């Protein structure tokens, strides 16, 4: 597909949540299917025949970033109405916007801009909620495929008459299930997607928006199809209380009962999960999309990330656009560090120090980097996020000399200092080139030279 090639230079990745590895002069060989064939110290082996990309000394290669939770049709809404409570924000701002995606031409224009912008920000894999429109959702999958972005794409299912407005609701559980089935079939059959690069997802919006009948049908479909599943879980006090009142227990137990906790399930948020919930998620092999920026606005609390990691639950990061306004997973990673520190110290100075926070809640930049890369890959059950044979070559070329870059740097940085600077100060201008599955996707073929 791409023709094999090799890359030589500095590379940085995190093989575990507490382990950073700097490869000071690596030779990464990529096969013609875009998979990593070998990673060796350059100099130990003769250079392979075929194209070779040589990094400059100040440049460094990172695995591509994974955004586990983003609402594609909310792209035009970023940065607005963030002072409303979740339920009001959904009904007054979000549902009217998503309803516009009945117009597939409008959807195509928004999605084209969205996917191009995410790639420029280093998001090589994105897990999308689309709208409840089948045609526009297929268009999103096609857009990802055309731009070369790895993606999981779901048509949102929402049929509950008490929680969804007349202008934006599935007519019935039957219709929502049928269109979800159609989406799975259509994405799997997209021309050029045999590998595949784009995956379909079963996407009940959240329990409040769906009838029990629909949730049960989608759980059966998850088992039958093996497709990814995504939904919102334990996001806010309002959602948590609503589900407890309706189902008699919390979101996690309810989703498990509907058959929606699978190895390929992505649960957005999980803020109010207790230890039993975290263990249930862990046993199912499901994962959590931690969305710290969004949670400051709509979550009412900070997700206990450290507790989840200590219980070996799969976790990665999500922007949750538009509840989170940033298109950058690097920005989400630095927010995850800040949020965990706020949880550890507590935030109200009127409370005595020893009562104020949750000891041991902090994470460091290595963990944040792992969440943004390999952690996301584990949640999705895909071989991404590491420079290792058998993994896809999804990578970012980081360069502090990129025009307009704010990236701090020093020639004698250790691996930890280099990573800290990237996580805390890198922006899109420092991302000089982006590969997905061995294909250069940024700059675009018709863009300016690197
Ligand atoms: N819960 C149900 N729908 C949504 C949504 O679109 N965004 C967020 N943040 N939470 C939700
Ligand atoms: Fe969300």
What is the terminal separation in angstroms?
Answer: 22 Å
CATH topology tier name of the largest domain: TIM Barrel
Number of helices: 14
Number of domains: 2
Largest sheet data: 8 strands, parallel
Q: Any ligands, ions or cofactors bound here, and which? A: guanine, fe (iii) ion
CATH superfamily label of the largest domain? Metal-dependent hydrolases
Beta strand %? 15-25%
Strand order of the largest sheet: 6-7-8-9-10-11-12-13
Radius of gyration: 21 Å
Order of helices and strands: EEEEEEHHEHEHEHEHHEHEHHEHHHEHEE
Secondary structure class reads alpha/beta
Low-confidence sequence ranges: none
Estimate the global geometry from the Cα principal axes.
globular
The CATH architecture of the largest domain comes to: Alpha-Beta Barrel
Fraction of residues in helix: 25-40%
Counted beta strands: 16
Describe the structure.
- This protein has 14 helices and 16 strands.
- It starts with a strand and ends in an 8-residue tail after the last strand.
- It is globular and about 65 Å long.
- An 8-stranded parallel beta sheet has the order 6-7-8-9-10-11-12-13. Strands 3-2-1-4 form a 4-stranded mixed beta sheet. Strands 5-14-15-16 form a 4-stranded antiparallel beta sheet, with no helix packed on it.
- It has helices at residues 86-99, 104-120, 134-147, 173-188, 212-225, 237-247, 251-257, 275-284, 292-298, 305-310, 329-345, 353-356, 365-380, 415-425, and strands spanning 5-16, 19-30, 36-41, 52-54, 60-63, 65-71, 123-129, 150-157, 198-204, 228-233, 265-269, 287-290, 314-317, 395-398, 431-436, 439-442.
- It is 36% helix and 22% strand.
- By secondary structure, the protein is an alpha/beta fold.
- The model has no long low-confidence stretch (mean pLDDT 96).
- α4 (173-188) runs parallel beside α5 (212-225).
- The chain folds into 2 domains: 5-64 and 385-442, Roll (Urease, subunit C, domain 1), CATH 2.30.40.10; 65-380, Metal-dependent hydrolases (TIM Barrel), CATH 3.20.20.140.
- The structure holds guanine and fe (iii) ion (FE).
- The site of guanine has 12 residues, from α1 and α9.
